[in-house]
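--- STAGE predict ---
source: upstream dedup step, 1 unique chain passed
mode: sequence only
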Amino acid sequence: VKIALKRGSLAQQGRNNAGRIESIMDLKNALKKLNELETASYALRHAMSVLYVDGDTVAPKNSWKGRGASLGYLSELSYRQMVNDETGEALSVILAHPDEVTPMQFRQAEVLKEEYDDMHVVPMNEFVEYQKLVNEANAVWHEAKEKSDFPLFAPLLEKLIAFQFRFAELKGKGQKKTYDVLLDSYEKGACMADLDPFFNSIQKDLTPLILEIAKKPPIGMDFARFTWPIEQQRRFSERIMAMEGLNPDNCTLGETEHPFTDGVNKWDVRITTHYHEENALESMFSVIHEGGHALYELGVADELQFTSLGMGSTMGIHESQSRFFENLICRSRAFCKPLLRVMREIFPEQMAGVSEEELYAGVNRSHPSLIRTQADELTYPLHVMIRYEIEKAIFEGILKVNELPGVWNDLYHKYLGVTVPDDRRGILQDSHWSGGSFGYFPSYALGSAYGVQMLRRMEGDLDVWGIVATGDLRPINAWLDEKVHRFGKLKKPADILLNAMGGPLDPSVYTHYLQEKYSDLYGISL
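--- STAGE serialize ---
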């Protein structure tokens, strides 16, 4: 996937306009404006973040109405702060003087100029209206999922999709396909021309193995038949966070319908989970997954905090960190040793007599399922591929909102062989569309593939599995901090990936890893 940015072209663009700009603003004042913009933008992001987390965790059900009014006002302030002639001029002046500013200042101007270019083409009233719509849509989605009632959510979804078409047309200036514009907003440079062969490769390489496993007797999970009291699961989550290296003074755990991570600085990151009495593993892997996101945010260098660079680079790179811990580390044989020790302590009755090998087989058993977040490591990318196909069809204008449940159900039967019983476990299972996150889903598959190549590079530097078996993951975290986390957005995405993977993305490394792991687990010769 091509994700490189073009610093040179931005700098040249700034130079071409330098004569006109400098008659209005000199470099000193441009840098002063940059600092003012960063300070105000951070404060507004922080305020909106707190409102979002509160609304999705502990706020009363009907609080979305008042929250919408506040978010609308804050969104207008955010728009006015970014979209004005002075901001555009300041950023262009800085980009016209790459040799007279620090690398950090230049990169700040690059990142903010991209945001400015995207935002200034959108009328403010439409921008604010959209923020209010997202707030309402999220509230309605929660209710619709609870009632398994897609028609309740459908009118909001239609409005969200209409806004996506409108914004993509403005941002792409009619020169890019709508869905390519949306993909690029989450993974810089990503487009259907690159993602189509990526997903085709995954399907071609993994489907034969999935079909072979389907012929095998299912792996038993005798310990799964127990009830797992919520209060014990909360204690278990605290232990899992400690094992992953999360500092509770900087990172807290909340409860919500659809788990997420939110953070605006490295001293305040919020992760969430959802507990189920019949299944402790679902919440465990949710905490580990969101904990991987949190470790990224917690590892960004101090000097980047409170700026546009003080956050993860792209969503694909962010998902590489969450999927790295959820699957590569915590579903490994090595991790089952310390994991079993903790589980026996917290759940003595449920885990009595369970061996490390039984736990390893249990947390890795593969079987087609309905819910993406509960899917095993092998079938998971097909869940993502289904969403990718649906989003492509939506933004190619060939799939209407009222057709979505039927198409969703058909694709789940086609690719995973399962029958979707209701909207709650089908089209309404994910929160992403209610938040306007169209084009996000491919980041999960890209992140999974990135993570495997990072692991292979890490294995050349560390005794990875010896470290994991101790249950102390700090050396793993330190390697990722050095290669990925500390840079935030200071480095371009392509440079971060090269630094961590040692080469370009190769989907076959990812699929070979899965083929090797699951053929060994199920005794299959490929």
